[in-house]
Amino acid sequence: MDHDHDVIIAGGGLNGPTLALALAGAGLSVAVVDARPAPDRAAHGFDGRAYSLALASRRLLTALGLWGRLAPDAQPISKVVATQGLPGEGADRLGMVFDSAEIEEGPVGHMVEDRFLYRALLDAMQDRVTHVPGTSVVGQEAVPGGIAAVLSDGRRIFARLLVGADGRQSGVAARAGIRRAGWDYPQTALVAAVEHELPHGGEAHQFFMPAGPLAILPLTGNRSSIVWSEDSARAAAIAELDDGGFLDLVRPRFGDFRGRIALAGPRFTYPLALGLAHDYAAPRVALAGDSAHGVHPIAGQGLNLGLRDVAALAEVLVEARRRGEDIGAPDVLSRYQQWRRFDATAMGLGMDGVNRLFSNANPALRVARGLGMGAINAVGPLRRAFMRQAAGLAMDPMPRLLQGRPL
Description:
Strands 5, 6, 7, 13, 14, 15, 16, 17, 18 and 21 form a ten-stranded mixed beta sheet that branches. Strands 1, 2, 9, 10, 11, 12, 19 and 20 form an eight-stranded mixed beta sheet that branches. The chain has a three-stranded antiparallel beta sheet with strand order 3-8-4. By secondary structure, it is of the alpha+beta class. The protein contains eleven helices and 21 strands.
């Protein structure tokens, strides 16, 4: 059959365009079907949304030629401090401190604002990827030698493979019959950015409280992004407060270690859930990013997990094509599934376990948690192993793009 493209990617968020650029750079013809209009998220100014990009993710973006553009607006994470405590009472004495100076590879990660990352991807796709904005994939059918995708504008296009990068409620996965396991958390994430008097020095803080963790993540300048997980009913009430009321609740949790704070953009809320796809592949279909897994944001690994999918899937497809294989064949897609499913499932369940362990007021567990964090902090090799995991350097085997090497 005639193919319009080698690969059609449903989803124009961050994982879809990144995968498209990786495949296009290796000579494949790719179309990204994006439900949002092209200027969306790229035309506006700062809105507080940002991502913690692990070292391995930065290497991937370097290999794709994107990091040079992003670096001036990226904030290195020099240190991560994890503690527990109660709102208004400050942190317990025992905790963990992960200093990037302890590993030779450099900062464990960088904070990059959504507006810069999306714009860099959008610009890079020009003349290299067929971008179809304001359109969705609404139907699909595996046919001999390929797959037909039906678009919301009525068009029908053909490819060897359809990739679902269309989020946690993936239509591609549902139509392919791929089921999803998981559960909702009784928590909602409150997300905002703040300005503060004192410099952060590149330090990120994770403060575990009984209702859920508060992450304080450094942005460029005297700004930080906060991700505050709170009981869902209480979070709904907090979201209804005006900015002053919101800050009144944030301040005792944030503390005064960075001086006075003020909101630096709009606020967002996100219901939290764990969702893991039973399969990452079906006939002529592969899943990547949130379509395959949605995890708790404790360690900021959501996008990094998606970029691991991107690196693995791109390598599998490019190598298959070089060997003359059909890139949509079941044995090819099985290699990708075997590479990624265990890692993502382990991360999702691991973050679920950490959230359950810390998001409670049990005094005995609080003592045990403190002793555990203190013990990890005191053992250098163990502390560095945690850092390498957070930096995305523990994946085995490591895809070439995550090593900063081209395909």
